[in-house]
Automatic annotation (TrEMBL):
This is Xyloglucan endotransglucosylase/hydrolase. It comes from Abrus precatorius (Indian licorice). The keyword Hydrolase applies. Gene3D superfamilies: 2.60.120.200. One of its GO terms (cellular component) is apoplast. Residues 1-21 form the signal peptide. Keywords: Apoplast, Cell wall, Cell wall biogenesis/degradation, Disulfide bond, Glycoprotein, Glycosidase, Hydrolase, Secreted, Signal, Transferase. Catalyzes xyloglucan endohydrolysis (XEH) and/or endotransglycosylation (XET). Cleaves and religates xyloglucan polymers, an essential constituent of the primary cell wall, and thereby participates in cell wall construction of growing tissues. Glycans are attached at N114. Belongs to the glycosyl hydrolase 16 family. GO terms for biological process: cell wall biogenesis; cell wall organization; xyloglucan metabolic process. The keyword DNA-binding does not apply.
Length: 293
């Protein structure tokens, strides 16, 4: 092999390695029962393809949900979801992490249903020490009812990143130096659910659930969990430098990820608590620093 061709090969290998390091590991899809158990209304969960796919059903009697068997401090969590099609007004399809006590931490994906022809709204929120009210809302750049899309959370000591098909849509940084609490010592379970919230979910509660369209069905697969499993009584999970999500390249977004996040902000964001001066005349510290991006 000539020296010039060898140099090209080395460069290509180096670029490929860098690309692998720049994004989270490819999630390994596993059956539902590996990491999850039903939480409530077991008869409203339908298992397909040997448990590799499930459907959640919502009717006028009840919704349903499931949760991880274990609790986790830090890691990467993702789910492939196909949203309720058609007229889904009043429904909420959720994928979130939450701890257990009153001053709980929580990381939320909530998909707010729509009237037929209107876009779904994705609402994200972060609770720390029992305090939330950090809502952001976006439209998606695709129809989430037409097929599966992957929704992910990367959580370490430095940041929480919300991703849609591996595109960052929100970053919540660790701003403890500003007095802003950050989730680091309360293990969280991962929850998924489909439920009725027509008192607020669609146009602030103006659009009610049309039960003649029931049952409403959301489909899930993937069931990926890669985290530091901990007791609910644990105060800290010592992963520093030991797990892939703690490595330097995951402590901030890279240039391309920041570009993609700004693209989402510019084209698809419809609400950001950081810019809501009527609701928050006094800007939150994390918003003053970087706009909670």
């Amino acid at each position: 092999m000539g020296s010039s061709l060898w140099t090209v090969c080395v460069i290509l290998v180096s670029l490929a390695s860098a690309a692998l390091c720049a994004t989270p590991r490819r999630p390994v899809d596993v059956p539902f029962g590996r990491n999850y158990v039903p939480t409530w209304a077991f008869d409203h969960i339908k298992y397909l393809n040997g448990g590799s796919e499930i459907q959640l059903l919502l009717d006028k009697y009840t919704g349903t949900g499931f949760q991880t068997k274990g609790s986790y401090l830090f890691g990467h969590f993702s789910m492939n979801i196909r949203m309720v099609p058609g007229d889904s007004a009043g429904t909420v399809t959720a994928f979130y992490l939450s701890s257990q006590n009153s001053e709980h931490d929580e990381i939320d994906f909530e998909f707010l249903g729509n009237r037929t022809g209107q876009p779904y709204i994705l609402q994200t929120n972060v609770f720390t020490g029992g305090k939330g009210d950090r809502e952001q809302r976006i439209y998606l750049w695709f129809d989430p009812t037409k097929g599966y899309h992957r929704y992910s959370v990367l959580w370490n000591m430095y940041q929480i990143v919300f991703l849609v098909d591996n595109i960052p849509i929100r970053v919540f940084k660790n701003n403890k130096d500003l007095g802003v609490k950050f989730p680091f010592d309360q293990p969280m379970k991962v929850y998924n659910s489909l439920w009725n919230a027509d008192d607020w979910a669609t146009r602030g509660g103006l659009e009610k659930t049309d039960w003649s369209k029931a049952p409403f069905i959301a489909a899930y697969k993937g069931f990926h969990v890669d985290g530091c499993e901990a007791s609910v009584n644990a105060k800290f999970c010592d992963t520093q430098g030991k797990r892939w999500w703690d490595q330097p390249q995951y402590r901030d977004l890279d240039a391309d990820q920041w570009r993609r996040l700004k693209w989402v902000r510019h084209k698809y964001t419809i609400y950001n608590y950081c810019t809501d001066r009527k609701r928050y005349p006094q800007l939150s510290p994390e918003c003053r620093r970087n706009g909670d991006i």
